[in-house]
UniProtKB/TrEMBL annotation:
PANTHER family: MAGO HOMOLOG, EXON JUNCTION COMPLEX SUBUNIT-RELATED, PROTEIN MAGO NASHI HOMOLOG. It is found in: Nucleus. Coiled coil: none annotated. GO terms for cellular component: exon-exon junction complex. InterPro entries: Mago_nashi, Mago_nashi_sf. SUPFAM superfamilies: Mago nashi protein. This is Protein mago nashi homolog. Keywords: Nucleus. One of its GO terms (biological process) is RNA splicing. Its main location: nucleus. Residues 1-35 are annotated as: Disordered. Pfam families: Mago_nashi (PF02792). Transmembrane segments: none annotated.
Amino acid sequence: FLEFEFRHNKNNKKNNKKDSHNKNDRPDGRLRYANNSNYKNDVMIRKEVHLTPAVMRELRKTIEDSEILKEDDNHWPAPDRVGRQELEVVCGKEHISFTTSKIGSLAVVQASKDPEGLRVFYYLVQDLKCFVFSLIGLHFRIKPV
């Protein structure tokens, strides 16, 4: 499986030591990444980085521009033995979750009962994967001077 989570808490006070032990108090711009392919009994890969406000704004813009918050997964293919994909978006006061089968190609999208909505989901997931892999790759490969 592949999982990533972005957290951005606008109300978080960095110097508020009183609440620093609260589990729900998350640092601004945290990206957590986990990947377990089970290829040759490989171990779980876990990474965590903190992102700048500019990067978080770009992420939010990508999600909002996709218009995924207007979609509904009721007519998307249900998860099956091949796999499942899930996407949960909390953006301001809006909170939405999607679940569908693993999408291997645009042919699957076109054959669905809701090709327009599933296309939005498919491309957003591709964009988010590319975004995460780029950030993780840059963060862990660049050596300080």
